[in-house]
Structure formats: C-alpha cells, structure tokens
Amino acid sequence: xxxxxxxxxxxxxxxxGNLETLGAKAVLIPYREFRPDGSQLxxxxxVVVATATQIRRPLIELAAARGLPFYVEKPLSHDRAELxxxxxxxATVAERSMIGYxxxxxxxxxxxxxxxxxxxxxxxxxxxxxxxxWRENWNxxxxxxxxxxxxxxxxxxxxxxxxxxxxxxxxTPDSVTSLGHDRYPGVDFSDEIALSGGNAAAxxxxxxxxxxxxxxxxxxxxxxxxxxxxxxxxxxxxxxxxWEQLSLPFERNAMFLAAMADFxxxxxxxxxxxxxxxxxxxxxxxxxxxIVEAYEARHFTGTIAGDY
Length: 308
Hints:
Oligomer: single chain
Radius of gyration: 19 Å
Distance between the termini: 42 Å
Number of domains: 2
Shape: globular
Strand content: 25-35%
CATH topology of the largest domain: Dihydrodipicolinate Reductase, domain 2
CATH superfamily of the largest domain: Dihydrodipicolinate Reductase, domain 2
Structural class: alpha/beta
C-alpha cells in the first residue's frame, strides 16, 4: 500500500515513520514541494494531510477527487464555511477517511469511554505547557501556531475539547474567555471554554503558558468521581466513595500507530480496531464542528506578557 504524507514537520515525519513500521510504502512530501495539480498522488492508495490548518481543504479536495481516503490532522478547520466546504468535498470518501484525534486511543480515555457516565454532572479537562519548550529547533514566532486565523492554543491543543464532546455529545460551547499577546493579534494563548448540554456542564482549559506541563481530567458524578493526571499517569476513580488506583500503561507513539493502523484498515476495507470512538471522518465531524464553534466564540479579555 502506498501512502502520500503531505507535510514534513514533526507530525508528518512521525506519520511517515509509523506507516513504514506498519508495512506501508510512505512517501514524505514537504508542502512546499507539493505540486498543485496533485500529480504526486498518482499511484497512491491514500493521503495523510499534515499541513498547517489553513491549507487543509485544497489537499482534501485533490485526494477526494481521485477517490483517495485521507487522514487529516486536527483541527479540521477553524472556519465554519471552510468546514462546510471540506465536508462536501470529502463526502465520497468520508467513510474511509479519518481525523487525527489520536487521544481517543489513550488508555485513560478508552477506560472512560467504556464507562456509563450518565451520572456525571460536571467535567473539567485541562492542558497547559510553555510553548517555548515544546521541541528543539522550533520557534513559536515562525510556526503555524503564531498565525491569526488558524493558529492559537484552542486549535493547537483541541484534543481536550474533542475528548469532552466525545464523552458528552450533548455539550456545546457557551462562552470562551481568551488571553492574547500584543505581538500576535488574534492568536489565543490561554482559553477557558464553558460548555453545557444534557445533564452536565464542563470546562475545557488550555494554555501556552504553564512552566510545568499539565494534562488533567476530572469528572464529578452522583456515583463516580474521577481524578486523572494524564501527564503523571496517575489515575484515581471512586465509585460510591470508594477509591481505586488504576493501572493504565501508556506509550505515546502507540496511539499514533493504532490510529494509522485503523486508517490502513479503512483503505483496505478491513476490520478496524475495537477503539470505542473511531475518529472516522464522518463520525468525528460533530467534534470538528464544536471546535469551530468554540474558536468563533473566543472573547479576548486581556493579554499576557513575555517573549514568544
């Protein structure tokens, strides 16, 4: 099986390596070397789109026009009209394509996905990390994340929002309180998203600022209390007030491998894994819509200082 990987940044290179590990022939194409006529897709069985958010649609259109399933990195889009255009363009291959919501493969999320969460009345999802510490030889100011209209922390770290609305599908954004930076107009560095729907309320918090990496998930219910620290891999759950420490072994690249294996299975028409919430394109669209709604609802209430 031959797969074109468009975008040679860190995530594109990861997907390329994982495809090779899974036995596919992966062709890594830096976006600047990709020809607009799509001729480099000839002979391919599928496409991985690992470019900046702002340039997803043309590549999806080229793939879908050739009947090629695609794996597109999150977020799918930041714009309501653009998202609708992507949905329309992808319709013929939607059931064989995927969105890169890889946290759905995290063992902690999968544990919760198997639970009955109908008693939960409040949920909180949080992620924070100093963006300047993300990786070596990477500069925020020169990155996709610093661009107005497609950059910013809400889109960059939208896995938490995806997890929230996947576990609790009735949730919709009520408000988004954002902090920006004078040097980067329109780019959010911190967001507090309030959501409600069904019988639960939730908050999703994300920021580019925390000097200590944080990734936490807390649920409150009449039966269950959940305290998960995904970064420290410390998982506590109480049922009727009795606490239990869970063992949920985790290896980060295993999530990416599992997602890519499911993509290859979709291309081949084979059975996918038993993951509870397969991020197949058509099934994952509700989450993509909530992300756009939250992005459009951002209300900047202040700015942060610092050299970014």
